[in-house]
From TrEMBL:
UniProt keyword rRNA processing, yes or no: no
Protein name, as recorded: Carboxypeptidase
GO molecular function annotation: serine-type carboxypeptidase activity
Organism of origin: Filobasidium floriforme
Gene Ontology biological process terms from the UniProt entry: proteolysis
Family: Belongs to the peptidase S10 family.
Pfam families attached to this UniProt entry: Peptidase_S10
C-alpha cells in the first residue's frame, strides 16, 4: 500500500496544472488566467526534463530536472494554503503551523525526544528525532533520487503475485490523486489492459458513506488497485480514520474494496 506517494515524477508533476486549474479541487478560479498558463508552461518543461532524466539516468541531468519541477510549486505556496490539504490555510512560521503546515509534527518531536520515551525505545540519548529531516531531504534531492521512476520497481512485484494498492486523498496538491491515478494507468503489467478498462466504483465505508472511488484489476481486492479518498489530504488516516481502516481491513483480507458491508 502506497499512500499519496511520489512514484513517477514526470507524470505526477505534469498533472499539477490539471489539479490546480481544471479539477473540482482547483485552487485557481480562472483556468485560463496567467497563473494557470504560467503553471502549465513550467510543468511542461519539468515533464520534458524528467523524461530525459529517465533515459539518461545521470545526476547532472536529473538534479536540474528536480529543481525545475519543484520550482513550479513556488507560486502555489504563495497562495498561503496547506499544500498537503488545500482545504486549509497555512502559516509557515515556526511558532504557527510550521514549514510543512502541520504543527503536530512539532508535538511529535517534543514527545519522541523526551528522555523517558528515548529510554523506553532504547534510542541513544544523544540522537535527536526529527519528523522531517531537511538535511536528508536535501541530500536525497542533490543525489537525484527524487527524479527516479520508482514505479518501475512495482512491475516485478505485481508480476510475482504481490498485490499493490495505490491510494490518495483528493485534497492533497503536493502528490495529487490525478497524477497518482495517471501513472497507475501507465504501469506495464499483465493487468494493464484490464485496469485501463476498469470503471471507477464508489468506495462505501462501513457507515454507508461514499468515501471515495476504486479502480482495480485482477482477483479479489485486485492485483493492482487505485483508490481516491474524499475529504482527505496527504494524511488519509488522520483525515478519514474510518475509511482508512475499512480500506486497510478489506485490502489485507483480499475483499472487494468498493462496497460496504
Amino acid at each position: 500500500m502506497i499512500g499519496n506517494g511520489l512514484s513517477e515524477p514526470a507524470t505526477q508533476f505534469a498533472s499539477v496544472p490539471e489539479y490546480a486549474c481544471d479539477s473540482p479541487y482547483a485552487v485557481y478560479k480562472d483556468p485560463n488566467g496567467p497563473e494557470c498558463e504560467g503553471l502549465r508552461s513550467k510543468m511542461a518543461r519539468c515533464e520534458k526534463l524528467a523524461e530525459t532524466c529517465y533515459r539518461v539516468n545521470n545526476k547532472f541531468v536529473c538534479v536540474p530536472a528536480t529543481l525545475s519541477c519543484w520550482s513550479g510549486f513556488g507560486q502555489l505556496q504563495d497562495l498561503g494554503l496547506n499544500m498537503y490539504d488545500t482545504r486549509k490555510k497555512c502559516d509557515r512560521a515556526e511558532d504557527k503551523d510550521g514549514p510543512l503546515c502541520y504543527r503536530q509534527m512539532g508535538w511529535i518531536e517534543t514527545y519522541m525526544n523526551s528522555p523517558e520515551v528515548k529510554k523506553q525505545l532504547g534510542a541513544p540519548a544523544d540522537i535527536e528525532f526529527k519528523s522531517c529531516n531537511m538535511d536528508i531531504n536535501k541530500s536525497f534531492l542533490f543525489k537525484a533520487d527524487v527524479m527516479h521512476r520508482s514505479s518501475d520497481l512495482l512491475i516485478p512485484v505485481i508480476e510475482d503475485g504481490i498485490r499493490v494498492l495505490i491510494y490518495a486523498g483528493v485534497n492533497d496538491l503536493m502528490c495529487n490523486f490525478i497524477g497518482n491515478e495517471h501513472w497507475v494507468d501507465k504501469l506495464e503489467t499483465t493487468y494493464q489492459a484490464a485496469f485501463l478498462n476498469s470503471t471507477a466504483t464508489p468506495f462505501i465505508s462501513s457507515n454507508q458513506t461514499e468515501a471515495g472511488y476504486v479502480r482495480s484489476a485482477g482477483h479479489g481486492a485486485g492485483n493492482i488497485a487505485f483508490m481516491a479518498i474524499y475529504e482527505a489530504g496527504h494524511m488519509v488516516p488522520q483525515d478519514q480514520p474510518l475509511a482508512a481502516l475499512n480500506m486497510l481491513d478489506r485490502w489485507l483480507n483480499n475483499e472487494p474494496l468498493a462496497l460496504g458491508k
